[in-house]
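Q: Convert this sequence to C-alpha cells.
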Amino acid sequence: MVGLSKAAEAGYERDGFAIVEGLFSADECQRICQLGETLESFRSGKLTPAMNPHRERPELLETMGDGRLMACMEQLVGGTPMGLQTQYFYGRPGTPGFARHQDNYYVEADRESFASAWLALDDVEIINGALVLYPGSHREPILDVRAIPQLSTFGQDPNANKQECVLPETYPSIDVPVKRGTVVFIHGHVAHSSHDNKSERFRRVLLMTYIKEGVAYRAGYTARRETFELRNLKRAS
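A:
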C-alpha cells in the first residue's frame, strides 16, 4: 500500500483536497456501476442518490476497504480509518448540482479525523456535473448556512440544494473535471458543490466517507451513520 504522494499530501494540507488520477481502472469502475444497477433506486426508476448502498450490496465494502484507499485515508485521518457512510450518485441528465456545503456540517466530527473519497465512475466534466471546490476553505470552522431557492430536485437528494454554507469571499472556486477512475479526497471542512448535469450523459459517483477509529460523530436522521470495520477488507495496491 503506497498512499498519497508527498505532493498530494501537501496539496491536501494546503487546499483541503487531493486528486489522484487513475486510482481505479475502467473495469473496476464498470463493476461498481453494475452493482449500482442492482440498487433499489435504479430498479424503481427513481435514480436519486442511494444512501449507504453498502447496506444493500455489501460488495461495495470491498471497494471502500481497498488498500489503495485505506493507505491514503490512514494518512488523512491520522489513524485507523473506519467506514462511516457511502452514497451512490447516478447523476442522470438534468440532475441539478449539490449546493455549496461542508461535509462536517452534517457529521460534526473532529475536523482532522474525518474525510471522504469521491470516486468518479464516469468521465466528469463541467457540463455533466463536475465538482466545484474552494481551496483553503478547510481552515474555516463549520460555517453558517442560509436558505437558497430550490429550483429542482429532479434526480437529486431533496436536501441537496435547499441551503448553502456562507463562505467568505476570499476563497475563489475552481472546477474539477476528472477522468473515470479518479479519486478526489475531500477534507470534512472544505467547501464544495457541483455543477448541474446539462449533458445527455450520466455522472455516476461512489462517495465513501471515513472517520478515525474512536472519534465521535453525529448519526443523522436520514443517513443513520454508523461506523464499520474495514481493516479485514484491505486490498493490496
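The first strand starts at residue 17 and ends at 20.
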